[in-house]
Amino acid sequence: MSVPTPVTAVDALPPPPPPPAPVASSSSSSSWPFGSLYNRFAAWRKSLDLPNPGTVENLSKEAKQTSLNNYAFDGARADLSKSLSMNPMFQVTHSFHLGSQTSPPTYHFGAMFANDRLFMHGNVDNDGNMSARFNQGWSANSVSKVQAQLSTTPGQSFVQLEHDYQGSDYSLNAKAVNPSPADLSGIYMGSYLQSLTKNLALGVETIYQQQAPGLSDVGAAYLAKYTSTDRNWIATAQVQGPGILQASYWQKLSEKVDVAAELQVMAAPGRRDALATLAARYELRMASFRAQLDSTGKVSAYLEQRFAPTFAFLVSGEIDHFKNAAKVGVGVMIESSSLTPEEMGMVPPPGVPAVPMPQP
Asked: Which pTM was predicted?
């Protein structure tokens, strides 16, 4: 007969509780005296749900797209492009321009490559002038850009380095033109645009220029942009230097019609000048018509008529009533492709920039 083992006092005690879990350190907020204040400010700023105001470079983008300044031409022009790939996008372009009253006959050859993070474009003309653009997207909000030009004309060659950052309710841009690490000569620009409300954005742009050691100049420009709640009209203003003002107004009247007005005023000592421009754009299913009138007496019109998705006919005209002069231009745009119809119908992936055909 077995004798039961006696239970000691130690065996009767319950097991010790597990050690407490380590508490996360709050050194990030306690080590900085203003940490909690910053967190409250960031939370309040996020609760406002302010939109991104866009970049300073595209401050008056809608008004510029309506006007004829980037479309008007004279003489005869032909743009022939061929798409070799859709994803990634790869396209080559041949551009001819002759018979102009203001420029000699020219020929341009261009090549374009783009995917969701990278964009490259190169161009060379019959005189040997070359230009190139390179954009690298590091994220959806951060893009680095390089632009360069080699010209046979003295003083026309340049290189430009740029970086864009888009925040939730602000945009930052830094730019350097012909920077020299040796003596820090060049042109340096920085801009900041901040949304204060869902409609109003204010910003500033600074320019530092150093042509030679000891010879420098500093300037600043102040920006304002107001967008309606339904985004049917946008007003912008830019004040720079002593007495220089640029203002624009754009309004969308319907799905097919929009109008724009631009004003440039210079009231610097010894020079007073002003230019006002009114423009309208009418978009049809297979055509686009633009008309423009400015305070110098110029009346301009531009028509792009597409007879097929790969063929367009262009007509541009301008009458200068004060100088009693006129300009007329005609052109064609022809697009060909070695892709199959299924490949041509592919939609570019998100993030691929919608790049227009290079203009001569």
From this structure: 0.78
